[in-house]
Amino acid sequence: MDESGRHDILHAHRRTEAQETAAYTNESLRSYQAKYALADSSLLKGRQEFPDDITTSIHTIFPCLVVQRISNTLAARQFLPKGPDKLELIFTFLAYEDDDKEMCNIRLKQANLVGPAGFISLEDGHAIELVQQAIVRDKEAASFIEMGGTDVASQDNLVTETAIRGFWQYYRRLMGFN
Amino acid sequence: MENRELRYAVEELIHSYVQCIDDDRLEEWPNFFTEHCLYQIVPRENIDLELPIAVMYCDSRGMLQDRVVAHRKANLFAPHVYRHLVSATRVTGQDKGVVTARSNYAVFRTATDPIHYGTSEVYSVGEYRDKIVFVEGEAKFQERIVIVDTSRIQSLLVTPL
């Protein structure tokens, strides 16, 4: 996270399956359930393309841009506010001109993970609606998201909303709302 | 197969498919496809610009089944039902046992959560471009490309079109 809390980078590193399972189980996350397996696991077949162990890297650039790499998907997300109760999100997926056919296919298939029908991200749209429904009726009241503490600072795990707190803290300062 | 018989088989497949989804029998949905198949939902803009990226991309019946399991067990979304209207179905070609067809569709989405219950909206309009084969006498989609005019997808897309 930068000093003012407006931009941040979220990154995750490759772990073995055992480490992954242990981490999820220890944190008792709803998202981990051992009884499910993919009927076609080719969805998750990727290929290392950069000399590091980073599997996910998501850059949030204040105020309206997100640039992401999730496995082999490369994409930009633009957030377009359309009013106090409406927002548009534009996904642009990218590839390299010299990608071979295999890499093109990997990127096309892994695009299932993100976007409006993404296995990972489709419920983001629903989450935003739930938050909106909850805050509109309270009019003048204020709220904040407490997951992962109350401060704005870099953290070593993703069970946190520090980045959202950072965004709004900076926004309030910028707009003179403090 | 005679033309009239073929047309009937094609229309029957296309209509059974949409009724399956509208009836929320999603577990049966992968059976409309051959085992090695292609199901894609692609914005019309990408077709026009010859850009390959899809909103949803499944190239096996297994991937379709995974979509159904995620829908039922994993994904969180506002509950809803679909109503498909399909029209202008035409068989556009036939080559080496593969029948090509196209249709227009409109999908209305009706909310079934307590707050918005019974509210309908035009959720998606577009076109189906199909490649259909006969497996043991039964018509199946070898390929179904859903070209969506409605590239502004309301909130999310979890139920197949």
Give a written overview of the molecule.
The complex is a heterodimer of chains A (178) and B (161). Chain A contains 4 helices and 5 strands, in the order E-H-E-E-E-E-H-H-H. Chain A has 178 residues and is α+β, with helices and mostly antiparallel strands. The model of chain A has no long low-confidence stretch (mean pLDDT 88). Chain B is α+β, with helices and mostly antiparallel strands and 161 residues long. In chain B, a hairpin with a 2-residue loop joins strand 5 and strand 6 (138-148). At the A-B interface, helix 2 and helix 3 of A face strand 2 and helix 3 of B.
Largest sheet data of chain A? 5 strands, antiparallel
Helix content bin of chain B: 10-25%
Structural class of chain B: alpha+beta
Low-confidence stretches of chain B: none
Largest interface: A-B, 26 and 29 residues
Distance from N terminus to C terminus of chain A (CA atoms, Å) equals 21 Å
Q: Strands across the major sheet of chain A, in which order?
A: 1-2-3-4-5
Strand content of chain A is 15-25%
User: What does the overall shape of chain B look like?
Assistant: globular
**CA radius of gyration of chain B:** 16 Å
- Overall mean pLDDT of chain A stands at 88
Beta strands of chain B, count: 6
Which series of helices and strands of chain B comes N to C? HEHEHEEEE
